[in-house]
Amino acid sequence: MEIILGQALFLLFCSILACFFTFSTTRSKRKSPGAVVTPPGPPRLPIIGNIHLVGKNPHRSFADLSKTYGPIMSLKFGSLNTVVIASPEAAREVLRTHDQILSYRSPTNSIRSLNHHKVSVVWLPSSSAHWRMLRKLSVNLLFSPQRIEATKALRLRKMKELVSFMSESSEREEAVDISRASFITTLNIISNILFSVDLGSYDSKKSSAFQDAVTGLMEAIGNPDLANYFPFLRYLDLQGNTKSIKVCTDRLFMAFRGFINAKIAERLLRNNHNEVSNIDFVDALLQFTERDEAELNTNDIEHLLLDMFGAGTDTNSSTVEWAMSELLRNPKTLAKAQAEIDRVIGQKGVVEESDILELPYLAAVVKETFRLHPAAPLLVPRKAEADVEVLGYLVPKDTQVLVNVWAIGRDPSVWENPMKFEPERFMGKDIDVKGRDYELTPFGAGRRICPGLPLAVKIVPLMLASLLYSFDWKLPNDVVSEELDMDETFGLTLHKTKPLHAVPVKKRTH
């Protein structure tokens, strides 16, 4: 009882202190009549600001508020000033025109609890020499055209394993959890690129500690956390996020160290460290650390690997799940996509990456999925390094900036019939997801564009085409396609609240 009373008094003291700072800040702002006006926004409550307006799905709440307050809007969450962007024009200002000033990151409490923001390619300032080194290593050793081409056979092999798993389920007429199956496929692609091993298993009876740790980490990072808005709460960990994240990352780092140490031992046994023909990412990083001028240590490698798994697994698998959900909900679109695939692939028996270029309707399906269901609906939070003017409004230094790509993708002033899944809207148009068209930027743009984009645009269409080529699909338990649940849950990535389960029916023509 005394502990509870002590915490209550502490929170009361902090609340009074917050009121004082809010009052002081408000007075100081009023003394600057000549300043450029900040973006409009809803009225704020004392202490909490606009937290009460957010709800469980911030991207939806922000989209609704933007209808009233405009495409660039000010909000306050506790002590955190925030600006939300909700139009292609405003997104261009943030992601291109003022990219340098607005390329800083606003790390969450969970990221800070790991000190991940001090060594992560996702969170380090883009002006940092260490960030430039990590970014260069990621691009050159993982995502360059040469490296993407070198891992093509690996991706094809993992797609065959996915199809084989689906075939076994088809023979038993069992519904498959599409999210889980696509997650395992993506996890094994990435773990092989990084370590040359499979880390996931399709067998639901085999529990993969690594797989569970990756999933648990992403859930914990995506959980709401009041400490993001009230820094004094960081030490209390009231929602248990810091504890959950530590448990998951400890497991992952232990696994990473095991792989790294094994590779170091293997390299010591070889006279020529470069004699192996197909080196993976960790091999390449270890080669880099042997250079005299290299500024990379084991801790850097571990956190870089954490970035690769966090950014690459869940995002790709959730996109495949959303695409399959939309296709099953729109049988005519599904039939059209399958007809194109069957016409191009014929009796070959397997979809190869070279075939994807000949499937424009499938490409349109993927783009339409990115439009309606971007994996990161608010992108990664940015932070203003200095005062900057965006569309005539002042964005003060240290303000968090969120680009609501989910809202932009559903804006009726940008898209015709924005709520309908219509891949045809992209046919014959040059709009892509590579950061040049600001009405469709699921991977961001500018210097902070997701470095894994070249790999993602290989994995997603190849996995989707493989599933549609090898199988017909039906919903279990007589679920009607029009009634398929499409509710979403906000987190690190935008998930279906109820995972998609579907029954694969093997085609007799292949």
TrEMBL record:
Q: Which InterPro entries match?
A: Cyt_P450, Cyt_P450_CS, Cyt_P450_E_grp-I, Cyt_P450_sf
Question: Pfam families per the record?
Answer: p450
UniProt-recorded Gene Ontology molecular function terms: heme binding; iron ion binding; monooxygenase activity; oxidoreductase activity, acting on paired donors, with incorporation or reduction of molecular oxygen
- Which domain of life, per UniProt? Eukaryota
Q: Does the keyword Secreted apply?
A: no
Task: Identify the cofactor(s).
Answer: heme
Entry-linked CDD domains: CYP76-like
Q: Which UniProt keywords apply?
A: Heme, Iron, Metal-binding, Monooxygenase, Oxidoreductase
Q: Name the PROSITE patterns for this protein.
A: CYTOCHROME_P450
Specify which residues bind heme according to the UniProt entry for this protein. 450
Family assignment from sequence similarity? Belongs to the cytochrome P450 family.
Q: Know the name of this protein?
A: Cytochrome P450
Gene source species: Microthlaspi erraticum
- Organism lineage: Eukaryota, Viridiplantae, Streptophyta, Embryophyta, Tracheophyta
